[in-house]
Design goal:
The protein has 484 residues and is α+β, with helices and mostly antiparallel strands. The chain is built from eleven helices and twelve strands. The strands form three sheets. The chain has a six-stranded antiparallel beta barrel.
């Protein structure tokens, strides 16, 4: 073989051997790398699986928010373990053992349950002394403790104030006790002085008693004699009174016979004549105003009312006028009055006369008022009926007296007072005033009948409520309002 060709063959062989060796080395490295990478992949999958068991991908991204700041030299899991150990120590008061988190949480849960039961027992024991504050998980212990602390502070302050007040009261008591003891000594001294005076009076009393005992028989005899003389005088006075009463009855009987005989010869004058006297006349009428021929010189004043009657016709017995007027403006010789009521068919005209039973230009008429009055027309006596009549009379310068005499001008007589049935003992026990009302009703009824009798004797005009109201021109106004 030529030398050049042998050299090329050796080089080729060498290159081929080198290639095979390198290939084998590369293949070996590839196999080793593949095995290593496969192991790494399996380890990575196992690691990812374990990490997934520790935290999800979302939780891994939020470790800073879930765990908080990682403690120096510790992982997030180690940091959480440290926090759990601290919580375990804070709740149980024990050093955490080398136990699992599950075991620690069970221990913590048992302690919390035990604490809740203790809290409930404590709240039940305290009852009304504390009001529990409730939250989403039950009793809000911290807020409840704060409230209890506030109440405790308030109670302590109250106790302190009470102690101060007690000290003040004790001081006042001590002062009062000292004053009382001083007063006690003064009273003891005063008692001794009074006792001495009492002993002296007792001795004087005994002396007077002995003196009275010696003269009692003489005094009794003198009193008996004086009593006998008084009884004799009383019997004589009663006999004289009976004789006078008999003479009075006989005189009254004779008077009635004489009056009856006199009436047969000449009838009694009409006692109502003065009541039907006209007080003024209508001068003119303009619209709703009537003008009168009397003024301030005749003692006319604003507010005075009159009944209006037809001219040249006597005032009717019932006193009912054709209209009612009220004076509102007064001059010296004339006055103006507004027309309160009138009739279109019988209107007010000049020269019509007016009258008011109470009012008089020259004098003040005297009245006696008795009975009950019904101003509202409900058929029941008004409680203030008599007072209203009295107010009207006094309003227009009339005078009220209790008893009839020859100076009495008119009598206003209401309805006869109703006499109630005599109350029983049971009614008196229930209402002690019922007996007093019964006696008053009896007295009012007797007075009412006595006034009627005296009116006939003294020939005093008697007017019932309707005639009285008609004759003062106040009948329609009285139904609307009370007099002032």
């Amino acid at each position: 073989m030529p030398a050049g060709k042998s050299t090329d063959s050796s080089a080729t062989l060498y290159a081929m051997v080198t290639f095979v060796v390198l290939f084998l080395i590369t293949l070996t490295c590839a196999i080793i790398f593949y095995n290593k990478s496969e192991n790494f992949r399996i380890q990575e999958e196992n690691t990812a699986k374990k990490i997934g068991q520790l935290a999800s991908t979302r939780e891994q991204s939020r470790l800073d928010k879930i765990v908080g700041k990682r403690l120096k030299g510790k992982t997030y899991l180690g940091t959480m373990q440290t926090y759990l150990d601290d919580l375990f120590s804070a709740i149980t008061g024990q050093v955490p053992e080398d136990a699992s988190a599950e075991t620690q949480m069970r221990t913590i849960g048992a302690k919390v349950t035990e604490a809740k039961m203790l809290i409930n027992d404590t709240l039940e024991f305290l009852a009304d002394d504390v009001t529990a504050t409730w939250g989403p998980e039950g009793v809000a212990l911290l807020r409840t403790i704060i409230d209890l602390k506030n109440k405790l502070d308030t109670a302590n302050n109250s106790a302190t104030n009470m102690e101060l007040l007690l000290d003040e009261v004790q001081q006042e008591y001590d002062d009062d006790d000292a004053n009382w003891r001083n007063e006690e000594q003064d009273l003891i001294a005063e008692k001794e002085r009074i006792q001495k005076a009492a002993d002296a009076l007792h001795e004087e009393y005994n002396n007077l008693k002995n003196l009275m005992t010696r003269s009692t028989d003489e005094q009794v005899q003198a009193y008996v004699e004086r009593l006998d003389r008084a009884n004799e005088k009383l019997e004589q006075s009663q006999m004289d009174m009976l004789k006078v009463q008999a003479k009075l009855d006989k005189t009254d009987e004779s008077l009635q016979i004489a009056l009856k005989t006199l009436e047969e010869i000449k009838p009694r004058p009409d006692v109502d004549v003065l009541a039907y006297k006209a007080d003024a006349s209508i001068v003119s009428v303009e619209g709703n105003v009537a003008y009168l021929d009397i003024g301030s010189r005749d003692h006319v004043y604003a507010g005075l009312t009159f009944s209006v009657y037809n001219k040249n016709v006597p005032i009717p017995k019932d006193g009912k006028g054709k209209a009612e007027i009220e004076v509102f403006q007064v001059s010296p010789n004339a006055s103006a009055a507004r027309i309160l009521t009138s009739s279109k068919k019988n209107a007010i005209v000049p020269e019509d006369i007016v009258a008011n039973l109470i009012w008089d230009t020259d004098a003040s008429n005297t009245f006696v008022v008795s009975g009950t009055f019904d101003f509202d027309g409900d058929g029941t006596a008004d409680r203030d009926g008599r007072e209203r009549v009295t107010e009207l009379i006094e309003r227009w310068n009339g005078r009220i007296v209790d008893d009839i005499s020859i100076m009495t001008d008119f009598i206003v007589l209401g309805m006869e007072p109703k006499v109630m049935t005599a109350p029983t003992s049971n009614q008196i026990d229930i209402d002690p005033m019922v007996e007093q009302r019964y006696d008053q009703a009896q007295e009012d009824a007797l007075r009412y009948n006595e006034i009627i009798k005296q009116a006939q004797t003294f020939m005093v005009p008697v007017f019932n409520q309707r005639r009285f109201m008609n004759l003062i021109g106040y009948e329609s106004t009285a139904r609307k309002s009370k007099p002032f």
